[in-house]
Amino acid sequence: MAASVLFCIITALNFICIAFAFDPRPLQDFCVADPTSPVRINGIPCKDPTTAKADDFFYRGLHVPGNTSNPLGAALTPVSVATVPGLNTLGLTLARLDFAPNGIIPPHYHPRATELLTVLEGSLEVGFVTSSPANVHYSKVLEKGDVFVVPVGLLHYQRNVGSANTVALAVVNSQNAGIVAVTNGVFGAKPPINRQYLAKAYLLDEKTISRLQATF
């Protein structure tokens, strides 16, 4: 009996070692994305590495301010595998965030990435909320040179609290972090979510729900 138990333990430990030995990192120097490939995989296929060129790893234009003349007063300029094919499989995405005075990015979350924010100019309030049931709100006003991290999958937001334009850099540790904008998802779903259900869920009347669905 003792021998069989010991055998099971050793077998289980071997499987654990195999699991920890799994290498999630790239298996080659690089994998320049080939968006024209007909192959469908979890990501983007690689093109022939012998055809790679320096421009596959290059982007110019992050110094150009984004257009904040929109209802949110904010703009996002991404540097992703779509603009830098050499980022494929490397698990990184960068974005420039521009905020007009009082500009905001509404509450949202990234299901597949942690976010690191650095303010380059201006003042930016950043906050996130922990999962239920605690729902603890952590927030900080960032000034030039300040850094703030938002853990993976948590609801967060940004807003310009200064009197001038604010510029920040955001980095996520995923090629495709995903973004779920809460209000857009709830009130902008197509086809729409049942109004009676939403009214009950958010303690609002159906008229308000209808107005919100029309807005989003």
Automatic annotation (TrEMBL):
Keywords: Apoplast, Disulfide bond, Manganese, Metal-binding, Secreted, Signal. InterPro entries: Cupin_1, Germin, Germin_Mn-BS, RmlC-like_jellyroll, RmlC_Cupin_sf. Mn(2+) binds at H108, H110, E115, H156. GO terms for cellular component: apoplast. It comes from the Eukaryota. SMART domains: Cupin_1. PROSITE patterns: GERMIN. Residues 60-210 form the Cupin type-1 domain. It is found in: Secreted, Extracellular space, Apoplast. This is Germin-like protein.
